[in-house]
Structure formats: structure tokens, C-alpha cells
Recover the amino acids of this structure.
């Protein structure tokens, strides 16, 4: 009944690449419209998107209606809020600005039950979606929830090996825009910057060697195609705003001949 929820972590680890509908807009019909085009999951962007708590809840349910998992990109350091999103039925959390193994350990501690962490019990809506009993939900929770640390700072990139070694951390997600700002000390914002590209390749190699999920934000489909070939198994394809703008521009140009 709930394989698309409880089996998504294993599917990401095994591949093939899953493509995420990156949903920043508050209106759940936007997520619904994009998901229907064949994306594998939704990422609801709480950190920088327009969301409020009701639209995160609605986004999780809309994804569920199409039997797609939803993940949430949380605010910086908001690990308690992240546990709440898992309770609401999100299958995974993408945590920005993880700078050290200590940050990654704190993240895992909030989001995994003992023995990996000390998450507090209360997955009410999640159990409504999975249809599992208390015991079954607990038994599967650590294996099916996806806890991902964003690598997007100099410190985080330098600490990659230690971050990857944190038990219970399922993978990393590259934030190429922040990484470009960090690596150029504020001089450039360019997700395709050469130094970022080198980092993206190294992160793929190290994360795959550690047996963890390697994922990244991609500004468009071309970049997502390139990173899929490097072995990334979860990639965004632009954002809802980007997809809307590019379709609007293209159709208007066709209309004007
Ligand atoms: C980044 O590129 O910095 C991101 O956080 C992607 O959303
Ligand atoms: Mg970022």
C-alpha cells in the first residue's frame, strides 16, 4: 500500500536517477500540475519558497494523491520543524547549510528514532498515509525516512568525508548557487561555475563510495541530464517558477510568430 513512501529511500540508493519537481509556490495545484508530467517526487522548498505550513501539508497530500513521495527542504537549523514535516508524511528532509559532522549528527538525532537518534514519536498523518500500525511504522521509519545534508559552504565541502561518515545520514544534496558564492568568497553566483563543477564531480565520487544518496539542485534539464550521467540519483529540474517562466516565454514567442 505504501511502497512509494516506505520504499523511496531504497529506490534512491539503487537508482535510476529520480527527478524531483522543485515546488516553491504555495498553491498545491502547481505541484500537482508539474508532478503529473512524470516527475518521481516533489521537493517542497520551505527555506526559500513561498510556503506556509498549510501549503506544506497540502503539498504532501497532493503528492500522495498521485502516489509520489514528497520531501521538504527545511530552513537553516530547523531540525525540530523537520521532524514535524516527517510526522505529516514527508518521506525525506533536505537540510541546508550543514557545515560539519556535528551539524549532521544533530540533524540525524532529530529525525531518526533510537538507536540512530532520538526522534520523538508522533507520526500521526504519516501513519494515515502509510496505513501501517504503530509497531510497523516504528520498525520501518529509520529505513524509510530520508535524511539529507546540503553541501553548499566551504566548511561543509571541506568536511565532506566526516559528514558522509555520520551514521543515519542517508546522503548529501549539493546547493550549487550557495557553493559558488562560498567558493568565490562572495564574488560570483553561478551554479555552473567551474570550481563548483569540480566539487560536484568529487562529491559524486565520494558519496557513491560511501554508499549514500548523492543528489543536487539543477537549474534546468540540461544540467540534470549531465549530473545523472555522473551517477547522481536525485536531481531537481529547475523550479516551478523556472518551468512556468520558460513555458510562458516559449509559447508567447510562438504566438508572436
Ligand atoms: C543552492 O544552490 O544554494 C540551493 O540551495 C539550491 O536551492
Ligand atoms: Mg542554498
Amino acid at each position: 500500500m505504501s511502497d512509494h513512501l516506505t520504499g523511496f529511500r531504497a529506490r534512491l540508493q539503487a537508482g535510476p536517477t529520480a527527478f524531483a519537481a522543485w515546488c516553491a509556490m504555495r498553491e498545491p495545484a502547481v505541484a500537482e500540475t508539474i508532478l503529473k508530467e512524470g516527475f518521481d517526487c516533489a521537493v517542497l522548498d520551505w527555506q526559500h519558497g513561498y510556503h506556509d505550513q498549510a501549503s506544506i501539508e497540502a503539498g504532501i497530500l497532493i503528492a500522495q494523491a498521485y502516489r509520489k513521495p514528497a520531501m521538504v527542504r527545511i530552513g537553516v537549523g530547523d531540525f525540530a520543524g523537520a521532524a514535524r514535516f516527517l510526522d505529516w508524511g514527508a518521506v525525506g528532509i533536505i537540510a541546508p547549510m550543514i557545515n560539519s559532522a556535528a551539524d549532521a549528527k544533530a540533524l540525524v538525532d532529530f529525525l531518526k528514532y533510537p538507536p540512530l537518534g532520538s526522534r520523538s514519536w508522533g507520526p500521526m498523518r504519516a501513519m494515515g498515509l502509510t496505513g501501517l500500525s504503530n509497531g510497523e511504522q516504528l520498525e520501518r521509519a529509520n529505513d524509510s525516512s530520508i535524511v539529507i545534508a546540503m553541501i553548499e559552504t566551504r566548511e561543509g565541502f571541506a568536511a565532506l568525508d566526516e559528514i558522509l561518515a555520520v551514521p543515519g545520514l542517508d546522503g548529501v544534496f549539493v546547493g550549487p548557487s550557495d557553493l559558488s558564492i562560498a567558493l568565490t568568497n562572495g564574488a560570483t553566483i553561478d551554479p555552473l561555475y567551474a570550481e563548483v563543477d569540480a566539487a560536484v564531480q568529487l562529491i559524486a565520487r565520494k558519496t557513491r563510495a560511501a554508499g549514500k544518496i548523492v543528489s543536487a539542485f539543477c537549474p534546468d534539464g540540461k544540467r540534470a541530464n549531465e549530473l545523472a550521467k555522473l551517477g547522481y540519483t536525485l536531481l531537481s529540474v529547475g523550479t516551478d517558477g523556472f518551468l512556468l517562466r520558460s513555458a510562458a516565454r516559449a509559447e508567447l514567442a510562438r504566438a508572436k510568430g
